[in-house]
Amino acid sequence: MDFTHIISLAAKYAIPVVIALIIIVIGKWIAGKLSRSFETTLNKAPKSDPSLSRFFASIIHYLVLFAAAIAALNVLGVDTSALSATILGLGAALAFVLQGSLSNLAGGVMLLLFRPFNIGDEIDLGGLKGVVLEIALTATRLKTADNIEVIIANGKVWGTTIRNHTSLKLRRLDINFGISYDGDIDKAIEVITQAAADNPRTHSEPAPWAKVVNLGDSSVDIQLRTWCDAKDYKALSTEISQPVKHALDKAGIGIPYPHEVKIKQHVKTSKARDRIARLKALNNT
Q1: Which residue of 22, 88, 144, 149 sits 20 to 30 Å from the alpha carbon of 233, by its own alpha carbon?
Q2: What CATH number does the domain containing 135 carry?
Q3: Domain that holds residue 143
Q4: Pick from 215, 2, 64: which is nearest to 56 by CA?
């Protein structure tokens, strides 16, 4: 046995394999260490999201592993230029096939980065209203007022107009009340604003405000504007009308309602009626 030949083969193949294995092990250790550190750092940031931190950490993990694999192949003498081109080509083809999913993923990343809404917020997405239940990387879950769960792809969420009803904490309720033209406008404004101020959900600053906004066909329309916490908006909008009605009744101010007048006119002669009568007479003969 030619030990010199064996040693030369070992020096040619075994040492590069060992070095490649060492590179892979070190690369795996660096990938885990770096991704965990990056995730921990992101989680400490204000308004951070665990799913987003985990997503970016996993990207870093796989990028480091890919770099380690390329370095190990280079040590083994493998030409990685063709391999890199193949991987890039496969990546481009995969991106084309999964462009819808990647769009949703990109939308989820943007939502988690910029935070136009949070879990528990009441939002309006292009006319669809609901409370946010979950913000995932690919889809957002809402619960509508009638307790229906709606799942929307994040690509559509990020691409539409987002109206957040609770993010600013305060809401202004605008509601119109019609009084008769015979009613005392100043008195009506006084009792409407007082009824609003008596509700515990109403803010005293800014104070409730009411003014005439329209002179209708049968009513003088007075608009009430009052501020409240965003979470109390729905409750206040349903509570305010009844006390305002009672206050207007107590002040002797009427609320008009539509009247329908029917006019019946007797016509002595009618060509159409005479024609019908002649046809009946002909049929009877």
Answers
A1: 149
A2: 2.30.30.60
A3: 116-164
A4: 64
Distances in whole angstroms, Cα of residue 6 to Cα of each of 2, 19, 76, 110, 150: 7, 19, 18, 58, 68
Could you report the per-residue pLDDT of 173-229, keeping only the tens digit for each? Answer: 999 999 998 889 999 999 999 999 999 999 999 999 999 999 988 899 999 999 999
- Beta strands 162-164; 122-125: pairing state: antiparallel
The helix/strand/coil state of 140 is strand
Percentage of residues in the chain having pLDDT higher than 70 = 75
Domain count, the chain: 3
222 is a domain residue: yes
What DSSP designation does 202 have?
Answer: B
DSSP three-state, residue 243: helix
Q: Measure the CA angle with vertex 96, ends 70 and 111; round to 5°.
A: 90
